Amino acid sequence: MTYQEFAKRAKDYAAQIGCASAELYYANGESFEVNANAGEIDRYSVSREAGVSVRVALNGKEGYAYTERIDDPEKLVDHAADNAKSIESEDDHPMQTKQTYQPVTRADSALKNKTESERIALAKKLEQACLALDPRVKRVVYCTAGYDSGAVVMENSLGLYAERSTNSSYLYVMPSVEDGLELQTGFAFRMGAEAADVEGCAKEAVEDALGKLGASPVDSGCYRVLLKPFAMGDLLSAFASMFSADEAQKGCSLLAGKEGQTIANPLITIWDDPFDPVAPRAFDGEGTPCVKKAVVEHGTLKTLLHNLKTAKKASVESTGNASRRSAASSVGIAPTVFRIEPGVLGFDALLRELGTGLVISELEGLHAGVDAVSGDFSLKAAGFLVENGAIVRPVSNITIAGNFVSLMKDVVAVGSDLRFGMPQGGYFGSPSILVSGLAVAGN
Amino acid sequence: MNPIGTTTTALVSEETALAVLREAQKSGADYAELFLEDNESTRIEMIDGKVESANFARISGAGVRVLLGTQSAYAYCADINEATLLETARAAAAALGEAKFAPNGEIRFVRKHFTTPVKQRFDTIGNADRVEVMRTGARVIKATSSEVTQAMVRYLDQVQRVTIANTDGVFVTDERPRTRIYLQAVAMNGTEAQTGYEGPGCCRGFETYRDVIDVEKYAVSAANMAVTMLHAPECPAGNLPVVIDGGFGGVIFHEACGHSLEATAVGRNNSVFSGKLGTKIAADCVSAVDDGTLPGEWGSINVDDEGGTPQRNLLIENGILKGYLIDKLGSRRMGMPSTGSSRRQGYMFAPTSRMTNTFICAGKDEDEEMISSMAEGLYAKKMGGGSVNPPTGEFNFSVSEGYWVKNGKIVSPVRGATLIGKGSEVLLKIDRVGKNMWMSPGMCGSLSGSVPTNVGQARIRVSGMTIGGKGGAIE
Q: Whole domain around residue A180: which residue ranges?
């Protein structure tokens, strides 16, 4: 059965059993990934996938069902209708109607026009480049090149039709270095248009690893902290759900009802920018046209992120932030491309501004050591000790602890060095951020 | 656990499997394997006693893996008809080079069928049954304290049916039912909010909610955690002794040691424990096991994901490293036999060495004495999740319910604690292991995706760990 036949039969059957509306979300994709080890192909993976989700509205409730077998549309609709019948929440979750979208062009990523053997060669070259940079690089823990492409088609019985195709390329590497006394690992990645930058990626990863040699904890206490872009981006990602109107309406966000109020230092502006070249898109997970907006502007919370359900409940317009993590997921809320507006200070100026304190370059344990409801975090961290504006030595095996809402208010300076972290289900970017105090546990 | 004769429930015929394996070997692979999956799951979410969402998903596809020495290639596809399987086999084979010859070794399948004993199958119940269990949890969470402002309950059940065939002659089917209920309480007082949660799960049928999992007990526990933490000061920072309770406390072993014993790390010499077999890596009071054969446990498997037989693997005995967790590819790298430890989330992942039910074995120490003999430190009653970097062994995990101890007595609950350290150091610093071992379920993420694993231990004490927190001294 073709997908078109499947979609038509699903919509017809949904109408026949009394669904007020029915929507299909179809996603397909192909992927390639290779990992090089000791000059050989160590892991290699290729795939082709497709799946379809149906969502129905029945007696004012919605239900979902997903399948990767494009064979029995009626059964899938029955499953979704069954789920709709179980819903007790009174919230109305309307479906989007026919929309027009502004054209979005997304630059081809770097590995799109490369052959498979060229992509394999890139991974091998990345490993070699790391090993050649310094004799202390003994091994490469992993060294991966990948390319994905895919398409999404959304259509519903209210006239919505939206489709897009995307492709992405990436390169990442973890070299390990040894100096006879200890072992440290480093990490770097490149994505999108930069995904063929083997030399830059290798250099950054090796420098990251070498910079950690000789690291030790500092004494426990309260320190001024300069959070580098990846560390701050990770925190922003971990606490992004605070900006979700859904979490706010459920009573799970400290930002509920704070629109128009000061929630951060005036140095802080946060954009939700669906058209950022890092991952531009024209419509969200419900087919609502995307819009660029400041979520926080000079410290003031301008809006929470809405989908059609939360917008209706709050009597506002959707902000185009409906998300579907995959075709199998139901509609939620997520930022599109979320980034903190950079300032003007370079890294050396930030170090002088820091004076004496810590530079934190990486955080670990983000899936466990953060509580998005309370805003509290306590995380393993690594970086450098800074005295009088100069880096003294690397620091590891410490934790930093604080509260995200307090941290946003305690910002003292914002750097010019905006970078996006490795995408893990979303795109989060930040420059370096200097904060006046975080609790550090070490010796 | 129960081979049930030879009634066929396979997702592919033996003839097709054979054709696919032959196709996969055409570029010279010395091993090929076909994994097919048909996985049906239901997820329901309830907020404050009302069902908020209900979702059904059927995931279905197949993966073909080929090995040549220690090179591996994997191809997968969300379709399991014969033409697609052959195409997928060709895609995997192509990674090893041009087609060279028709493999001539004869493959004779030995069929095995496994199923997990279930009294009440998930396809015989409806959402109303599921919701009834959830409603009990939500009601009890709310009723436990007036400070609980919100109850969230998430429910999952899934049945993963797999067929695995390989050129070693394995042709095996398995049916793996799992269910889990996640109970979360939020307690609030004006400006502050704290959460408490429990997430029991089993590898059984729906009867588990009558026979094994006491939802009301877990709901009370989640609510109490939220309320206790709402009144807790922030945990002080420092390097002090830590008592870690049993159950999910075993996450310390999972992160500090377990991942570093997986062939993925050991086989490439990327583990602090590479080459340490037979040497002392932990205190004498520490013995540890990974056992995928425990009936009905969340991390148990009837057959591993390359068709191997799970077993009880002794990892550490009285402080001496005795074994690793090894899959087929790891076994080739390490020159050691596979330990039935090959796992994957589903057909979208090539399998690799993973944990199942992993725990520190019960010891001889008294629970009370561990705290009463401690001058100052932390009693970590409930743990959150954690992570590790295997090459360095540096790990971290969060404490979701902690208490501060002074002069042998608990003086206050504390919130926001994180524990960090190095696996090679912390294992040697364990100075007490209690007598009562139990396990708790979790989801473990690694190379081959997210797989259900149990962590476990009896109450233990570590003589010194870095405790992260932002609180001042507790008087």
A: 116-149+160-212
